[in-house]
Specification:
The chain is of the alpha/beta class. It is 36% helix and 16% strand. Bound molecules: NADP nicotinamide-adenine-dinucleotide phosphate (NAP).
Length: 216
């Protein structure tokens, strides 16, 4: 795994930013930076999914493209890093529990881990592999757009397992109106995506003809 963290560099709090990042956009970057500041994190490590457990493989862009766009988007923030841990996992689906176990071993038990992702994804957490262990070894941060019904998250999870909500923080992010789906659809329709993601990611999308002629 190529993760530029110096060995022996003791970290107290690390954010693990999980997502498909198809493509990464300004909403993701604002989320990571806002959470880093609010939770006083030493670093946020972006982890593009390899084979998302809940998605049809052929509908997700090649992992190398998603990884490279994530590197391009995060390159000028020294507090951000990108990990290939899920992309390089040889077989099977990308379960978050395997990723968190990996980082837990890598940093050691003194480092607190925060898993950051979209609230809609976290809504399904009780269906994730080994979710109880997951919640016991890291804290979850659910990113939402302003105006999103927080009751929805609390009701969906809280009704079946009220104790889980103690391990989940909800953070409202202004830039979350942007979505990867919106960007893919705009590229496919020939509409501009300026100011929705970084210039480098925009150029990468056009250069590699990603999201052109989308069907479905
Ligand atoms: P998704 O279902 O594609 O996304 C759900 C919502 O969350 C979308 O609105 C999405 O917006 C947003 N979102 C996704 N990642 C985000 C992030 N890092 N910050 C802010 N918003 C985010 O979710 P996904 O990307 O496939 O999965 C999210 C994470 O959950 C991944 O790390 C995945 O591996 C993990 N997960 C694990 C399991 C499991 O272990 N069984 C199951 C499901 C998901 P955009 O489309 O704009 O990003």
């Amino acid at each position: 795994m190529t993760l530029q963290l110096p060995k022996g560099d003791k970290k107290n709090a690390i954010g693990i930013m999980g997502g498909t990042f198809d493509p990464i956009h300004l909403g993701h970057l604002v989320t990571a930076e806002e959470v880093r500041i609010q939770f006083n994190l030493d670093k946020v490590i972006f982890v593009p999914t390899g084979r998302p457990p809940h998605k049809e493989e052929e509908k997700v862009t090649d992992p190398e493209h998603r990884y490279l766009m994530t590197v391009l988007a995060t390159i000028n923030n020294p507090s951000f890093a990108v990990s290939r841990v899920e992309i390089d996992r040889e077989e099977g689906k990308s379960y978050t529990i395997d990723t968190i176990r990996f980082f837990s071993n890598y940093f050691g038990s003194k480092t607190k881990l925060y898993f950051i992702t979209g609230a809609d994804a976290i809504m399904e957490i009780i269906t994730w592999k080994d979710y109880k262990e997951l919640l016991s070894i890291c804290h979850f941060i659910a990113a939402t757009r302003p105006g999103y019904s927080l009751h929805k998250l609390k009701e969906t999870i809280g009704e079946s397992c009220p104790e889980i909500m103690q391990n989940i923080s909800i953070v409202q992010i202004p830039g979350m109106q942007i979505s990867s789906t919106m960007i893919r659809q705009r590229v496919s329709a020939g509409k501009p995506i300026k100011y929705l993601t970084t210039d480098a990611v925009t150029q990468y999308i056009y250069k590699n003809k990603l999201y052109h002629n989308l069907s479905g």
